[in-house]
Amino acid sequence: MRNLFSRRERKTTITAGEQEQLEHSVEKTKEGVFGRIGDLFRQPIITDETWEELEELLIQADVGPVTAQQLVDDARKQVQREELKTPVEAETAVRLQMVDILGQDDHTPLEDMPEGTIILMVGVNGSGKTTSIAKLGRYLERRERSVLFAAGDTFRAAAIDQLRVWGERVKAPVIAHQQDADPGAVVYDAVKAGQSRGVDAILVDTAGRLHTKFNLMEELQKIKRVAHKANPEADVVSLLVLDATTGQNAILQAKAFLQSVDVEGIILAKLDGTAKGGVAFSVYNELRVPIWYVGTGEKVDDLAPFDHLGFVNALFE
Ligand SMILES: Nc1nc2c(ncn2[C@@H]2O[C@H](COP(=O)(O)OP(=O)(O)O)[C@@H](O)[C@H]2O)c(=O)[nH]1
Ligand SMILES: [Mg+2]
What we know:
This protein has helices spanning 16-25, 27-40, 48-60, 65-81, 87-101, 129-142, 157-170, 183-197, 213-230, 248-260, 280-287, 308-316, and strands at 117-122, 147-150, 174-175, 201-204, 236-243, 265-269, 291-295, 303-305. By secondary structure, the chain is of the alpha/beta class. Guanosine-5'-diphosphate (GDP) binds next to helix 6.
């Protein structure tokens, strides 16, 4: 059987603590439905029914019908092709297909990006953008990178205050204007401030109002243009934050966003708070954007790089 490690090497290092957080964050998903998937393969033989039940369980775990069917078909084909006989071998085939469907795991880690990299956090209200900025700030600082926050969500005063509080907590400078200020101007100032201070990463908060969707998308495009203009040399990376607790709805929301904004990676927030963690398997398969990080709790240290193999194994153990 194909080697689990034959894929291109991942570049992001995951600490033992982060790996543990990742494992802990899938507990609800495992307890919910996923645990029963492992049970299927502890039967003496694999039958047509096993595969049907597998597909049903995957759908219940919020994998999404299209992706669930694809996973089962691919695993089944592998079992036939390689003439695998035992349930243990079949389970390994399923795990391999799950790792595959998460896409490549070889993006440049944020800690290895050049000085002055601008990271835009986008997503709907409440998905976890501001919290994820704080967490990424902490994550980068732990890896000896300096960060600066930009309060680009100027729609609510509370949003600016929230970022300031996080900034104090993780000791990151925060560039903010008044409520209702032009987010582009905030980003411009932040990029310039970051440049003059030699900061490694500028993390930009944005608004996520969906009721004025068209304007929001325009605003995000404008923020991106301004960021490029403020520092044409800098890489601009957009990360879409999705709320795992909304399951398949997160995929629909993401599709709406991706029509107007290009996104390099996804942060799947609140994985700890849901039994719908199976949604992770639809993300790359349906959006063609890989998950880079997952939110594993409400605290500032609760962020883990998304290790595909570690995630799949955690769901089965
Ligand atoms: N359990 C859990 N809660 C989270 C996580 N990320 C964010 N939250 C919570 O989700 C809520 C909304 O987060 P916030 O960052 O304000 O969302 P924003 O509107 O997109 O900026 C807050 O109550 C956060 O504490 C996570 O990974 N796990
Ligand atoms: Mg916010």
